[in-house]
Design a protein that fits this description.
Elements (H helix, E strand, L loop, with lengths): L8 H12 L3 H6 L1 H27 L4 E4 L19 E6 L13 E7 L2 E8 L4 H13 L1 H14 L3 E3 L16 H4 L4 E7 L10 H9 L3 H8 L5
Helix pairs in contact: 1-3, 3-7, 4-5, 5-8
Length: 224
């Protein structure tokens, strides 16, 4: 495996064309382009990102890259392919799709640019109960972890809220986090020049540093 030197204009062109021509026939005609323009450079990027993250944070993580094929069995949209590609950095030994129920970092490339951040894609009710209990029992630690994110003003809290979870008595800054049903913090960027350079993995790791205290708080939650 070589070194990541940045995505190319062809990478973005391929994603745009796939979105406009999302069919098995088109993909078969462009299978070579897919490998050269998207799969190979993205795999290099994911490897470099995980390596840089481990070196910078000393966190032990595995990484997983999305498949190009979509599971359309229960979807209204029957488009067979994803016109984007993402990688997640997850805890080791979390197999299959179980990473969705644990905190993970992610980066997604699309025709418009990229989105990245950290959160829990499908938190279970048991995990969320333990999460709320830990917020109350370790309020100062949690408040400090989200204060680091607010201070940077780079990431936005996203996700659904529970309607019947009462945050009364908690600090105002903590309440939006306490009522979440699923949540993540995200930053979106357009097609900036950084995408096309080998510095992109380093930049992403640097921006994730403000998320580390929250990641560690979430990772250490023990659910029943």
């Amino acid at each position: 495996m070589g070194d990541f030197s940045g995505f190319s204009a062809e990478t973005i062109d391929f994603l745009w064309e796939l979105r406009m021509n999302n069919s098995k026939e088109w993909m078969e005609q462009n299978r070579g382009r897919y490998k050269a323009a998207l799969k190979e450079p993205f795999d290099l990027f994911a490897s470099k990102l995980a390596q840089g993250f481990k070196e910078k944070t000393e966190e032990n993580v595995d990484w997983s890259v999305s498949r190009i094929n979509r599971d359309t069995r229960y979807a209204k949209d029957k488009s067979p392919y994803r016109a984007c590609r993402w990688v997640v950095l997850k805890e080791p030994l979390v197999v299959g799709t179980a990473w969705k129920m644990r905190p993970a970092f992610y980066f997604e490339l699309s025709p418009e640019g990229y989105t990245h951040g950290m959160g829990i894609y499908e938190a279970t009710p048991d995990y969320l109960r333990a999460y709320r209990e830990k917020i109350k029992s370790s309020l100062r630690v949690f408040a400090e972890s989200i204060a680091k994110i607010a201070e940077k003003k780079e990431f936005t809290l996203m996700g659904e809220d529970y309607k019947r979870v009462d945050p009364a008595g908690l600090p105002a800054a903590v309440r939006p986090w306490y009522v979440k049903k699923n949540f993540y913090v995200a930053q979106s960027k357009g097609l900036e020049e950084m995408i096309f350079t080998g510095e992109l993995p380093k930049r992403i790791v640097e921006e994730w540093e403000s998320l580390l205290p929250l990641y560690r708080f979430l990772k250490n939650i023990k659910q029943a």
